[in-house]
Amino acid sequence: MDDAKTILIIEDEADLADVLGYNLRRAGYRTDVAADGHIGLQKATDERPDLIILDVMMPQLSGLQVARLLRTNPKTSSIPILMLTAKGEEADQVAGLQVGADDYVTKPFSMKVLLARVEAMLRRQRGTTAAATEDILELGPVKLDLTNHDAWTAGRTVKLTLTEFRLLAALLRKPGKAIRRADLMYSAMGPGVLVTARTIDVHMAAIRKKLGDAGAMIRTVRGVGYLITREPATSTDETDEADAARAGADLH
Predict the structure, then answer these.
(1) Has residue 88 got a pLDDT over 70?
(2) For 195, what's the count of Cα atoms within 13 Å in the CB-facing half-sphere?
């Protein structure tokens, strides 16, 4: 257990937190629990867990607020976040991705599914550079350091979530080539993770926003997916607003 990963559970429902903790420990993880968002933020900052399971619906400080604060704190900005959302509440899922969650599981959920998602997220974190032979990916003003998990645009540091980092890396490895949404999500999240077109569009919108002017280098290919080019797109057809309008319609 010396090399066991630590998972912080931020959940105000004690019964659910106990069940999550029990099953995660059985799977070989260390766990810690925070009963509200304020405690969770403090523990995340002090203990630097390997992954955070975060409930959306909590009193005082919601999961969305917690995720936003985690992402703006340099000490916790790179910790993967798995968000628990209400079944069928797409708005919660989209909002969670927009504030920096890497993945989500809807309630009620299968414990096997949740454990599989946790393992996949930690495997992605371990393998951020394992599959790459290069240390640096660069196109125009955009640059990724695959070893240290750093990103820049025009010399400015960009804070990306794990999923966003891997999505951008997948595009940069094939500049000028359209990549299907399914293939992008496979690169970012691994096999066995089911996502909607809306999910990938939300991640891409977040990446574009964080890249600023360079975000226009990422272009939407209708009915296919995305590509990145050295020259920014000029057509309004390739904006984040267009992605949002098409969300759920352009299936891969």
Answers:
(1) no
(2) 30
- Sketch the domain layout of the chain as residue ranges: 6-126, 136-246
Are 161 and 100 in contact by the 8 Å Cβ rule? The answer is: yes
CA neighbor of 149 nearest in space, from 78, 70, 51: 78
Structure token pair of residue 133: 């032979």
* 136-246 fold: Arc Repressor Mutant, subunit A (1.10.10)
Residue type, 81: I
**Inter-residue contact 12 to 58 (CB < 8 Å):** yes
Residue 105, phi then psi, degrees to nearest 5: -130, 135
> Which residues are CB-contacts of 77 (< 8 A; sequence separation ≥ 6)?
70, 71, 159
Q: What is the pLDDT of residue 21?
A: 96
Q: What is the mean pLDDT of residues 57-74?
A: 90
Is residue 136 within a helix (H) or strand (E), and if so which, with residue range? strand 136-139
pLDDT at 250 over 70: no
pLDDT at 210: 92
CA 206 to chain centre: 10
Tell me what the mean pLDDT of segment 201-212 comes to.
Answer: 92
Q: What superfamily would CATH give domain 6-126? A: Response regulator (3.40.50.2300)
